[in-house]
Amino acid sequence: MHLRHLSLTNFRNYSRLELNLPLGVTIIQGQNAQGKSNLLEAIVFLATGKSPRAGSDSELVNWLVRDEPYPFARAAAEVVRASRTEQIDITLLPNKGNGRFRKQVRIHGVNKRAMDLVGIMLTVLFRPEDVDLVSGSPSQRRRYLDIALCQMEPAYCRALSHYQKVLAQRNALLRNLAERGGDAGDQLRYWDEKLVESGSLVVARRQWLINELEKEAALIHLDLSGGVERLHLRYLPSFDPGQQPASARTPYPSTQVLRERGVAYAELSVDQARASFLAHLYAGRSRDLAAGMTLIGPHRDDLGFYLGERNLRTYGSRGQQRTAALASKLAEVAIMTRVSGESPILLLDDVMSELDATRRRMLLEVIPTVKQAIVTTTDWDYFSDDILTRAYRLHVHEGQIDEVENAGTQMG
Ligand SMILES: Nc1ncnc2c1ncn2[C@@H]1O[C@H](COP(=O)(O)OP(=O)(O)OP(=O)(O)O)[C@@H](O)[C@H]1O
Ligand SMILES: [Mg+2]
Predict the structure, then answer these.
(1) Ligand 1 site, residue 38, Cβ cutoff 6 A
(2) Residues 118 and 147 in one domain
(3) What is the pTM of this model?
């Protein structure tokens, strides 16, 4: 698929932008603080309904219009997919006098829920901070899995959002019980079942994605590392979804499969995850009550990167960690293509400066293999002459984008 046209109004430092984008590689060059990241942010915002970096949507509205009587911001895209062309747009409108903004999502001009937007435009974003995926926090790695899965499977996105709501409610109950005491077995049981309903899908799908990522990433990694070390990706869930807890005498039914210990993670089904999650919640109830919060579940998951048995987070050099992060990002492109039948739009935000010459060269080999890549940089020198002559080149300055002399680029 590709993004054929992007229009922005009052989005961050773009007061007004109408931009046609071709198939193939587009490189946008600009000094610091000119609007490179803002542009890619707008594309991801349209793809997922969420900004990859803003804490609140109101941050996206241009400062200059905030004090106007009726401030708004709008991002819209024309996306060409194999089957049809989609028109999507999001407008941020003021929320009755409280200084915040609400999202109005439209597909072909018809109002929709933000959730309906997800999956129309598939993107893989790689930013300088993603280079630290391996050494960063578990929540960063969970977000990485979630953004990829949400774009591929709307059902995952719904389950995740349901899970987060139920988790907040179960935690509120636990906090209440921790403070005031009392017996709430029935109430907890109700929230356990709700939590497991969506949580089991989250666990099973994360497991699936990590297996897929490992297969692809290991191959890419062999290339990147010069064919010496094999990369492994492992799901590190907060409970073992293939097994019942040792002390499991739960009032809940368990599936036959679960009784056969050591269910292969690769084939972990939603049902298996469900029975196991429920049993673990029950077994951990007194710990949850003492802590006043839910201590197990997909909100505590992690993803581990290993070379052999060594965890790269603890033992890897900075270079090894970056290679692994890059390999798994590129693996994401391959998996999305296979699952959706469409090549996702690759968005690279100023990552060249973070990589050494070898890894930069590897990345430059991959960029032209996707249908559309939009790449930002501070410096043209990071790119080979070969790529520069083929790419559509743009320059950004204070939220204005202009063409650099381009020979023979065809608009899609
Ligand atoms: N809501 C907003 N309204 C107006 N301008 C904004 C808003 N939010 C951010 N900006 C400004 O937009 C400018 C461009 O930001 P952006 O992050 O896109 O820069 P960049 O080109 O990626 O720079 P760098 O190379 O440093 O990463 C910055 O000066 C920033 O302060
Ligand atoms: Mg930037």
Answers:
(1) yes
(2) no
(3) 0.89
